[in-house]
Amino acid sequence: MNSVSIFVVILALVIVNGAFIPQESSSYRFRTISINLASSEGDTVLYSDNDADDSKKFSKNKRWSSLNPSVKQRIIKEGQERAIRNKKKREPAADKKRRMLMQYKKAMVENKKSLKIMRPLAPNSKDRTKLVDIAIGNVYNGTVISLTDFGAYVDVGSECDGLLHVSQITRDVFVEHPRQALSPGDLIDVRITKVHTGMKKMQLTMLPEHVLEDEDEDEEEFEERIPLTDLALDDELWGEIKRVTSYGAYVELGAVRQGWLHFMDHPEFEYGSKPHDLMSVGDRIRCWVSNVDTDLQRIKLTANRPNDLPGPRREMKIMSDDDYY
């Protein structure tokens, strides 16, 4: 009997005896069989399912065992992190929102603790000076406790923290926010300007004494200031620049409010120029009223002569080299 006949007979026996048997899971598994194509003297196994599985398992374990222990730990750690990420992706929206909220609150608490400044004296210490004992004009060394959009709160060793307004920090440059010049925990020298014992409030300044005196003289000089209702559009005024900012300057006109002059309304304005290049504190300037807002108590100015005003106009001409010959 040749090999083909033997194979046909074995296949028929397998089908008749029910090689496909049902399992508990209602699926069918083919019996592992070994086909022997050899002489009666000795059988040679050409293929076996068990042998294939064992070889794969052995090769896999061999490869894993040959890896460095640190590499194994890294692979395990990456797998755990990947599993956590996949679990978060399947997380319900309500649980995710709750988890993110708790993380946000925890971060806010940690940030608040990191920004907490140690005071030289405890808030309820008996060594703190009472407000009634603080004299206006005295200079104290204080600690910056916190910053706000309008100023900074400074601990000078009194019952309450004093407010240092953003306009009282310096006159050299325009300070838009106190963080441009101060930081929590800084030690600074401040002068007491106002004390309100009933409301537990105190106002401070970092400006030099001569600057405060000049401002007081300006207030006393104009006993009868011009009300906003007496100002009309295109009125010509002379004023003195008191403060230069990043966008323009405040001009003292003798009115109840200082006027605002934008740097683009300056006659010498050129594209690329900055306010400090065109205007300086103490400069005398002629300007015209461009807008008056009585509700907000504001005066807007321009240094360019309005076109609809009668009279001669000064024109600036840029001469070329040929004009000189």
Automatic annotation (TrEMBL):
Biased composition (Basic and acidic residues): 311-325
Gene3D superfamilies in alphabetical order: Nucleic acid-binding proteins (2.40.50.140)
Keyword list, A-Z: Signal
A Pfam entry, by short name: S1
Domain S1 motif: 137-207, 234-304
Keyword Cell membrane: no
Gene Ontology MF annotations: mRNA binding; structural constituent of ribosome
Position of the signal peptide: 1-18
Disordered: annotated segments: 303-325
Biological processes per GO annotation: translation
InterPro entries: NA-bd_OB-fold, Ribos_protein_bS1-like, S1_domain
The protein's name in its UniProt record: S1 motif domain-containing protein
Record organism: Chaetoceros debilis
